[in-house]
Amino acid sequence: MESKSATIRxxxxxxxxxxxxxxxLGLTYQRVYNTLRRAGLLPTKEGGEPSPKAYAxxxxxxxxxxxxxxxxxxxxxxxxxxxxxxxxSPDGLSAFGPTKTEEGFQAGLELRLxxxxxxxxxxxxxxxxxxxxxxxxxxxxxxxxxxxxxxxPLNLWPYLRVYVDFLTAQMGLPRLVLPVLKL
Length: 183
Hints:
By secondary structure, the chain is an alpha+beta fold. It has helices at 4-13, 18-25, 29-38, 52-60, 141-170, and strands at residues 63-76, 85-100, 104-117, 120-134. The protein has five helices and four strands; from the N terminus they run ααααββββα. The protein has a four-stranded antiparallel beta sheet with strand order 1-4-3-2. A hairpin with a 2-residue loop joins β3 (104-117) and β4. The mean pLDDT is 88.
């Protein structure tokens, strides 16, 4: 039989809130909170970052099941003139998710690039990719904040690089290889 502490940890890792666990098990909020805090599963108060142990446990159980191209828009609005520049648009690279799935969660990145020359914008590429993850822990806000800044870009950047390279070549532009992602 599973101990109360083990049950509390399991329910939290399944995505239930502290108050939902307390209600379900007939325990006080403080008892559930203290159990999760001692286990290193709750974010710290200063800065809202998860404990290193909580993040390591989350990453240890993570597996990518697949990557899906959700959306692609690419347009060459006119032939480029002279010197060309490829730059991220103001909203550039952004993360989305997590969305709960049967086996874990889905999260992704959206990339917007603008192509410019001496006369202004002449085209763009907009990509939206999602990774499907198997995970026993559904990331809370604090876990996902760290994940979207560290691991999510590392997981999806190679896919974005391939699509940008392919699309720019198909548009008749010089192949654009995205730079190394330095986090």
